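Workshop exercise sheet. Pairs work together: one partner reads the sequence aloud, the other fills in the structure field after running the prediction. Swap roles for the next sheet.
Pair: D.N. / O.F.
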Amino acid sequence: MEMALAPETLARWQFGITTVYHFLFVPLTISLSALTAMLQTAWVRTGKEKYLRATKFWGKLFLINIAMGVVTGIVQEFQFGMNWSDYSRFVGDIFGAPLAFEALIAFFFESTFIGLWIFGWDKLPKRIHLACIWMVSIGTILSAFFILAANSWMQHPVGYKINGERGRAELTDFWLVLTQNTALAQAFHTLSAAFLTGGAFMVGIAAFHLLRKRHIREMRTSLRLGLVTVAIGGLLTAISGDTLGKIMYEQQPMKMASAEALWDGEAPAPFSVFAYGDVEKGHNTVALEIPGLLSFLAHNDFSSFVPGINDVNKAEQEKYGPGDYRPNIPVAYWGFRWMIGFGMTSLAIGLLGLWLTRRKFLLPRVHRTGEDEVPHLVLFHKPLGARLSKWYWRLAVWTLAFPLIANSWGWIFTEMGRQPWVVYGLFQTRDAVSPGVSQGEVLTSMIVFTSLYAILAVIEVKLLVKYVKAGPPELTEADLNPPTKIGGDSRDADKPMAFSY
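Structure field:
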């Protein structure tokens, strides 16, 4: 009980809760900004109202998520000074650099253009207004990259020296911090997973409306875009995950051995499908395995040697001194499987949706009378279409959250699998906590922040449900006739202009 309420344990719980909660909004923000920009681009190029209505609908959901993401992200960064002051002192010269770039370049860049996009619908010409949402999308990606570069340094510290007199790590090569293979692979994997998440979010909400035969034109378009995004994002997530896994086998062998519950090194090493064992004794009592697959995943060779948990623990004791360098094995093992399971299930559902669409089983078509579309007369191209589509739409709605669950378990695995290191091989978690913060103070702040986040969760869900149910908005005359010059209005369209789109 005393260990469970120790300041270090409470600080870790608080950071874990705020980080997982914050990261629910990050992938949606990254992907929805780009998907909204794509829809607006389609409107600017074609002039079709369905693209404009879809843009306003998904843009509103994007704004809700980015607002929540900003609020929760600020609290997350405050914790470095609150509960992790020794960490900040030791690595602040390095860790602070990419975070400063994120704030000064990416965040302000993103914030400026998001303001122009929100308030510029009736003030900016079409193409300039469109450029704003693309700038927002670029800003979200840059923001994510700088933060991931900082986290990657914790996974694999490079470009630094230790100042013995000041007792801290100091930056020597910022470019190496940004471009090391860990940062590039982790950015590739995280951004791919973000688009898998946004695509599934779009598919699930489009399916919700199609199941009720509402907003058919906009939701058919959204469903197609979401399915393509899920398929591409999911495939890239699998490819980037394999790349990142191979890097981790070289840089953090303990993490990857724990992910497979591989206690002793083997050649060839099997991939664990299911395992149950004794952590204290260091062996499995039940193991369902695929021979040689782990060797291939680690080194592209079905017969290569992969070190086990006991091997790595012994090697790290010899290198770093006495201690137990194993993470929480059950969390690492099952976190790795939940991440892959929920993520690849989402990919499978997306690929199934694309196949049904290609077979013309899934998408309803809108009855046409001359040039008019009548969205309430929904027909299907195949006799089985109605039954298959309803079955799939229900499945899509229920699995909307699967990528979010996969993202959460992915970060739990990434951070927990690195323990007991806060910076791998350099600085342990037990040495990183604030020495002057008491048990009661950490417990109080954890309860307050967790309660606040619970309230924010209720607000977030209510806002999303409200605007999802409302569907795409009706368009006004100003929406259909934006200004042709900066600061103009729709009435300027009939007047000669020196500048026009």
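Discussion prompt: The chain has 16 helices and eight strands. What would you look at next?
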